[in-house]
Amino acid sequence: MNALEIQNLTKNFGQFTAVDHVSLTVGRGEIYGFLGPNGAGKTTTIKMIAGLLKPDSGEILINGFSLAENPRICKQETGYIPDRPWLYEKLTGIEFLQFIASLYNLDKARFSDSTEYFLNLFDLSEWKNHLIESYSHGMRQKLIMTSVLMQEQPLLVIDEPMVGLDPKSARLVKEIFKQRAKDGTAIFLSTHSLEIAEELCHRIAIITEGKLRISGDMETLRHEAGKKSSDLEDIFLQLTGAWEMQEVISALRDR
Amino acid sequence: MTRLFRPFLCGLRNRFFPEGKISSRTLIITGFGVVLFTALYLVSLKTIGYFHSQNELGVILALKIFQMAWVIVFTMLIFSSTVTGVSALFLSHDNEIIFAAPTSLEEIFGIRYLTTSFYTSWMMVVFSLPVFGAYGHVFQAGPGYFLIMIPIVVCIAAIANALGLMVTIILVNLFPAKRTKDIVVYLSLLFGILLYLVIRLLRPEELADPERFPDFIEYLSSLSTPATPYFPPSWASTLLTGYLQDHSIDWLLIGLLVTTPFVFYYAGEWIMTRGFFAGYTKAQESFGGYHKFREHDYSPSSLRWLFLKELKMFIRDSSQWSQLFLIGALVVVYLYNFKVLPLEQTLIPAEAVANIIAYANIGLTGFIIASLCTRFVFPSIGNEGSGFGLMLTSPLSIKRYICYKYLFYVVPFTLLTVILLGASNHLLQIRGPMWWVSLITGLIITWSVVAMAIGFGAIYADFKAENQAAVLGSFGAILYLFTALSYELITIIAGSIPAYRLVRSWRWDMHFSATVFIQTAGVFAAILLVSALISLLSLKKGMENVEKNYH
Questions:
Q1: Which of A166, A174, B17, B193 has the most Cβ atoms closer than 10 angstroms to its Cβ?
Q2: CA-based nearest distance B376→chain A, Å
Q3: B318 versus B167: which is more confidently predicted?
Q4: Contact between chains at A134 and B547 (C-beta distance less than 8 A)
Q5: Range B348-360 burial, b when 16+ CB lie within 10 A, else e
Q6: What is the mean pLDDT of chain B?
Q7: CB-based contact, A91 to chain B, within 8 Å
Q8: Which range has the top average pLDDT, A48-62, B192-206, B462-476?
């Protein structure tokens, strides 16, 4: 059974179709990259998977459960890391983690082991009893990651994971994702960083104008783009129709 | 300054005239406003007309109330603009864009002054007009009165707001950096005391005390000259009193009222150019950033943690709890007035008057509760900000979340209602059924009004509000307040006849007849049922709509 299965997912905002009949699957232990230009429908898709937006049509299945019919079970099994950290400024780091843990009914022993581990890993232990309003952007991002990683859910949905992270933390996060995938966690990852996608993802999907343009491993993508030895950036530009950008870039360089 | 004013104007236009058309929201709010405006005008007309129709002393009483109203309006405006000024000037989300851009401090002061004045004053200005307008009608002052009165209300609001912002900038600069936000605590305390003193010094209870009448005649003679020559509301009330009595106009006072807003505005601008940057720098430092807080033990209970989260966020945000000082001061003034009411000096028996006041007091308490709900409960869901996404992605259902929110707020509001009604009933020396009528009706109103605040707060939640003032002046907040007050008014009117019969039956027969009992029980059961339905409907609509606002 797939950890995540999306069938014909569609979302309209008035006359505008943000996500148009998108279907995909993410297996256990798989890191699935979700790429696309700005406004392609990535965040809308992610928000629907996380239960933040109601689809107009289509279905989302998480570990075989329909998100529409069993939202509590699905949300319990999904960890969502947004691109901008959602936090309560007036709580301390540890209070925030306790609050999140209580929403997911995390047991006491696991809470204390996991939080200690991740707070140490992300160098946040010293700051755990300080108000979040005094945290830097990177610290906030690491705190929200801790709040998700501590729960060890079978599906992780991640929107732009490296925003605001220093190189050390970014390296750590990548290793954690790889390790989690090895342990059977499915990771659905949206990113603009093609290097991260190429390094981490087993399969990659590219979405443009709300439609899934292509989905597969690097070989499939190369084949589709007709560029056998290209890197992901070339393939991405080719498949998203942004190849003409090369001319603009050359023109800019010549100025 | 026009360029900085544009986002505010566009926001207003998009809110009230989306796509260039008048929205149903705008129509509803205008309708509510017109009804309330008319009701206020008619009530004022009746009250002032009653005083005016009495002998000369009645006229004095009416004019004394007139003076009090100006003082109260002015004081409240200074208070609210000072409190709002802290968040509008120093903590607005758009400060980073505006202040980083090549804009002058004069421009920033101008835009903050205009928007703060709008948010803090429009309701006070709009609803003081029918009261002051009724004076013109009763005293047959003619159209000239309105031509003077309306600009004066605007001038008084302009003075109060400029003064409020000036005080804010100075105080924010005086206090240590980490406590910038705590400034509001001191301001609230200061104005709480000021308001208390103003009201106490005016001694409203003496208005009904015949033994004080000789003093009032002396007072009448002093009405022609400003009692406190440096106090702008005195200029306004003295000028208009003169016009109301014999159409005389004091041009000096008009000159003072017209020029003072400009003087204060430019003084504020001057202070802004010298003190804003330092204050803004301080405001960006975290209040508790370097303070270590004590760690609690974890237990997996979402109810406990949601309560703890709400409580900690409230306690640690001084702009929230500091206003409790003001509420405290108001409660003391409120209860003290019951203590000093001269019940024995009225023509009807003191016990009957006490019962009437006790019943009317349900409405007053309800008004306080609704106002506090607008301030604290209505914005509580929108205040979650982007954190609300955490709720939506968690297994906690929206239904539970809304119920927890309701439970969190209903407890302190129940306590406040019991304290206000219990203490005032005690001071009024109420005996018999009115005690229970007052308490039960008051509690039903409170529980419903809190549910409505949660429901409306969810329906109109603004998770991206620029500042607290914008939330409190929003369509949803106004609609909530109007709806809650209308509900209270209808409830009190519906219950008045059975309550009267119940008290009369108890007073004369000392036992309830079956008919009275059935009628009373029937009406109060109907009130309970309708209130429960309104509460449930508000909460249900809130649950259904809250997700839509988040995106």
A1: A174
A2: 16
A3: B167
A4: no
A5: eeebebbbbbbbe
A6: 81
A7: yes
A8: A48-62
